[in-house]
Design a protein that fits this description.
Layout lengths: L31 H24 L6 H10 L2 E6 L5 H11 L7 E6 L2 H15 L7 E5 L2 E2 L7 E5 H10 L6 E6 L7 H19 L7 E6 L4 H7 L5 E4 L6 E5 L7 H15 L4 E5 L3 H16 L7 E7 L5 H4 L10 E7 L2 H4 L6 E6 L2 E8 L4 E8 L2 H9 L7 E5 L3 H6 L14 H9 L16 H13 L11 H7 L5 H12 L3 H10 L13 H8 L8 H14 L4 H6 L4 H20 L12 H12 L3 E4 L6 E3 L5 E4 L12 E9 L3 E9 L1 H12 L1
Parallel strand pairs: 1-7, 1-8, 2-5, 2-6, 3-5, 6-7, 9-16, 10-12, 10-13, 11-12, 13-16, 19-21
Antiparallel strand pairs: 3-4, 14-15, 17-18, 17-20, 18-19, 20-21
The structure holds adenosine-5'-diphosphate and magnesium ion.
Length: about 675
């Protein structure tokens, strides 16, 4: 089982705050003539897309859909992926004149999808992004007063409830990709039900229409939860897909994915290939291998271009997957499960499915969260297969045996049953829901998960001993970060190290800042040495960031030092956004402790007190302060094989043993001060 770090942040991802314009014309100031040309171009794009819209399966259902929404408060819409649900539904309602008293909100579990949908729909309507169509994802809001169709992540709509408890600016809320069952979507279901009820009972409010949408959904379950019987099925367009299983179990899915994709390229007629991989790291390795393979192809063969699709990919690169492959080339798309239902890519005829995805799991008994590579469910496998048959008959190569498929779970377990609930419980408390046990969950979390979350929030002083939210808790809830990080950021003001904390939170937002290629492990380790601080990983990351900035993110420098340039760019973006956030929250982002790292580590302890561990006598590893559990330092840590009296970590992962990651040296005497402060 592999494990990745990237736990610091509550949303699935941070991203560039740079808005892209609808056509590739940049958002600079225009003179009159340029403005006219620009408007004309937008208009022409919309005209062209109109023909495309008419071909979508949902187009024929237009009137029925509008009528059903008119007649019902809550409806469920189910339709094959690519049928046009996410892009067309809001436009139909708008065109039918249903939207006069507020805007339409459409939620997505993933920010990538929210952004790409908003851009597409702005193009289709013929408006500039941010005018009538906009998006709002964490730290990046392009919507304005005139926005009538707003795409947002489920997390953002939840946050809007903090300032607008009845969501009065919306008259229709569309909860899209409902089957994904993220923790935030699940909580949103319950909250939207409450809002709808409250607005119904208050004659001064306009009623709220709710639409629940999905490609694959247990519609009955949702129908009874939302007290509706109205289920609209959009007839799909799906061609047969022939499925191939591996004869034997594959020991190395990456190797198998490479072999299969290149075999398809050599032996099969044109058509793009979509490869499903668990995460960014695998995607980047495979990209390299395929690109190298591409250079060995004879000139008379189809050329290969690769396209990547994962959550942390910068926006400019995400949109590239939609470009059709140029003549004489075959596109190979390397994607995470984003391409399963969130984003439809045209032109795919072949699917290569590793059968793996990254999954977050929380073990409430030991308080350990892990992000590990797991087998997908049967539903996911079938959804992946379907991607090959959208436009013509297709082929799906499953890199696992039929027997392995039969052993897969039917569905993926909803996040609320397996993740750390602290951030979501803090939000519920901030909404004034004191009895979180009795909240109307679609699927209730286990008592032990709830208890863990409440305990953690109490220790962070976000809740008092009656379980009520404190002023600090309220402030923490306004940060779209995991509670421990929000607490550290708030504490950093008093401890004069906000700048360093912002840097650390940003650095921890990516999988990894170092590259460690299999065949150059030793060289990579050698280069890493110059950044290493005896105080451990966090300060080592800070050293690297400083050096990166001195060299202005130079590509050669990154290569030489085995630094992941893409991820570092991401870090810089996240930092920009955190700086804005702190400024908004009246925390000066420039307060610095310079190199007084003792102060910085003490500040980190305010949030990670329970994540400290004391060295045991003999060679027996460390024991956590939180719950006396024996843990070890992860081999990837700069403190591996080093003995320090006490350490603090930001993440615990479970592989063969429990391992601490992102480890720093602390002194046990600090813990006394912190613990009395925490319990005061
Ligand atoms: P659904 O929600 O039913 O899965 P969508 O409304 O997202 O379908 O997509 C309908 C069609 O629009 C798809 O064929 C898709 O390829 C295309 N499309 C959606 N977003 C974009 C985009 N950003 N760029 C290009 N094409 C897009
Ligand atoms: Mg959709």
């Amino acid at each position: 089982m592999k494990s990745k770090r990237r736990h610091s942040l509550a949303d699935d991802d941070f991203e560039s705050s740079k808005n892209q314009n609808v056509t590739n014309v940049s958002n600079k100031r225009f003179n009159k003539k340029q403005r006219k040309n620009f408007d004309l171009e937008i208009h022409n794009v919309a005209q062209r897309l109109k023909e495309f819209r008419k071909e979508l399966p949902i187009w024929k259902e237009r009137e029925k859909l509008v009528q059903t929404v008119k007649e019902n408060e809550t409806i469920i819409v189910i339709g094959e992926m690519g049928s046009g649900k996410s892009t067309q539904t809001p436009q139909f309602l708008l065109e039918a004149g249903l939207i006069s008293n507020g805007a339409i909100a459409l939620t997505q579990p993933r920010r990538v999808a929210a952004i790409s949908l908003a851009k597409r729909v702005a193009n289709e309507i013929g408006t500039k992004l941010g005018h009538r169509v906009g998006y709002s994802v964490r730290f990046d809001d392009t919507s304005s007063q005139s926005t009538v169709i707003k795409y947002l992540t489920d997390g953002m709509l939840l946050r809007e409830l903090l300032s607008d408890p009845l969501l009065l600016k919306y008259c229709v809320i569309i909860l899209d990709e409902a089957h994904e069952r993220t923790m935030r979507t699940d909580i949103l279901f319950g909250m939207i039900k409450r809002v709808q009820d409250a607005r119904k009972n208050d004659k001064s409010c306009n009623p709220l229409k709710v639409i629940i949408m999905s490609a694959t959904l247990n519609a009955q379950k949702f129908a009874s939860y939302f007290n509706t019987t109205t289920i609209l099925q959009i007839p799909g367009r799906q061609f047969p897909v022939s499925v191939n299983y591996s004869f034997v179990a594959q020991p190395d899915y990456l190797d198998a994915a490479f072999t299969t994709s290149t075999q398809i390229h050599t032996n099969q007629p044109p058509g793009d290939i979509l490869v499903f991989l668990p995460g960014q790291e695998d995607i980047e390795i495979l990209e390299k291998l395929i690109t190298e393979y591409g250079t060995t192809l004879p000139p008379d063969k189809l050329k290969i271009i690769t396209c990547l699709l994962f959550a942390a990919l910068p926006t400019e690169q995400q949109t590239k997957v939609f470009d059709p492959s140029p003549p004489g080339t075959r596109k190979i798309i390397l994607a995470t499960n984003i391409a399963e239902t969130s984003i439809t890519i045209n032109g795919v005829r072949y699917v290569v499915d590793t059968g793996k995805c990254k999954m977050r799991k929380f073990n409430s008994r030991v308080g350990m969260e892990s992000l590990s590579i797991e087998n997908i469910s049967k539903d996911s496998a079938d959804q992946r297969m379907g991607r090959a048959g959208r436009e013509a008959p297709g082929f799906c190569h499953r890199l696992y045996t039929e027997e392995e498929y039969n052993k897969m779970e039917k569905n993926t377990e909803p996040e609320i049953k397996r993740c750390n609930l602290a951030s979501i419980i803090l939000l519920l408390k901030a909404f004034g829901i004191d009895n979180v046990l009795e909240f109307d969950y679609l699927d209730a979390p286990s008592r032990s998960l709830l208890k863990r979350a409440l305990e953690q929030l109490f220790i962070l002083k976000a809740l008092n001993n009656q379980g009520k939210i404190t002023d600090l808790g309220r402030k923490m809830s306004e940060f779209p970060l995991e509670p421990a990080y929000a607490k550290v950021l708030i504490a950093s003001e008093q401890m004069s190290c906000t700048r360093e904390v912002i840097n650390i939170v940003s650095l921890l937002s990516v999988d990894s800042i170092f590259f460690s290629p299999q065949d150059q492990r030793d060289q990579a380790l050698d280069m890493k040495k110059k950044f290493i601080s005896p105080l451990g990983d966090l300060i080592t990351y800070l050293n690297l960031l400083r050096s990166y900035e001195t060299h202005k993110g130079d590509l050669d420098w990154c290569k030489q030092n085995f630094v992941n340039k893409r991820n570092m760019k991401h870090v810089i973006n996240v930092r920009k956004q955190l700086i804005q956030l702190c400024t908004r929250m009246n925390i000066s982002p420039t307060t610095t402790c310079d190199e007084d790292y003792e102060l910085l580590l003490k500040c980190m302890l305010c949030g990670f007190f329970r994540n400290s561990a004391i060295l045991q006598p003999g060679n027996n590893g460390y024991k956590t302060v939180g719950n006396n559990q024996v843990v070890n330092i992860h081999p990837s840590s700069t403190l591996f094989n080093k003995k320090n009296e006490a350490v603090m970590y930001t993440e615990l992962v479970l592989t063969s043993k429990p391992y601490m990651k992102n480890v720093s040296v602390i002194q046990s005497s600090w813990l006394v001060g912190i613990s009395s402060n925490l319990l005061e």
